[in-house]
Amino acid sequence: MTSRVMTREQAVRQCMRWRRAGQKVVLTNGCFDLLHLGHARYLQAARSFGRLVVGINSDASVRQLKGPDRPLVPEAERAELLAALRWVDLVTIFDESTAETLVEDLRPDVYVKGADYGPGARPLPESLVAERLGARVELVPLVEGHSTTTLIDLIRRRSP
């Protein structure tokens, strides 16, 4: 595990240090089961708002959200891969099915999700917590045709 993969308690302390230094804390979250171009562009966009913290769903949480065949990549490996990306400052793993408690604990200045959430799309439960804490909610565009589900479907079609 790298030094940029932290427990929630360590992440809370690091976020407080960044804020004291006058830096904006940005939080996003997701499963990040198979990294792809859509993830890279999404994380790069999120990082443009400040120091980027990525919360990833634990293996148990991913199974609850996506079904018994997921995740394909174990949580420790997903965390290490994300931490290796230059746009990501910190990674932490959370067990809940939504990141509401993580938002509450980390108190980001900006909370970022993909444009598949929000008005006219899927509801974003974390936005209520973020807004109550004074965080700005930013929705960034998705890269059409790039998703973990698309990759899994492509692999299944090509498998004998």
Structure overview:
The chain is of the alpha/beta class and 160 residues long. The protein has a single domain, classed as Rossmann fold (3-Layer(aba) Sandwich), CATH 3.40.50.620. It is built from seven helices and five strands; from the N terminus they run αβαβααβαβαβα. The protein has a five-stranded parallel beta sheet with strand order 3-2-1-4-5, with helices on both faces.
Radius of gyration: 15 Å
What's the CATH topology name? Rossmann fold
From the 3D coordinates, which CATH architecture would you assign? 3-Layer(aba) Sandwich
What percent of residues are in strands?
Answer: 15-25%
- How are the strands of the biggest sheet laid out side by side? 3-2-1-4-5
* Overall body shape: globular
Question: What is the typical, i.e. mean, pLDDT?
Answer: 91
Quick one: CATH class?
Alpha Beta
Order of helices and strands: HEHEHHEHEHEH
Domain module tally: 1
Class by SSE composition: alpha/beta
**Span between N and C termini?**
35 Å
Biggest pleated-sheet summary: 5 strands, parallel
How many runs of DSSP E, i.e. beta strands?
A: 5
| The CATH H-level homologous superfamily | HUPs
| Helix share, percent | 40-55%
Number of helices: 7
Task: Pick out its properties.
160 residues, alpha/beta, Rossmann fold, 7 helices, 5 strands, globular
Summarize the structure.
The protein has helices spanning 8-20, 37-47, 59-66, 75-83, 100-106, 125-132, 148-158; strands at residues 25-30, 51-57, 90-94, 110-114, 136-140.
Set down the secondary structure blueprint.
Layout: H1 8-20, E1 25-30, H2 37-47, E2 51-57, H3 59-66, H4 75-83, E3 90-94, H5 100-106, E4 110-114, H6 125-132, E5 136-140, H7 148-158
Helix pairs in contact: 5-6
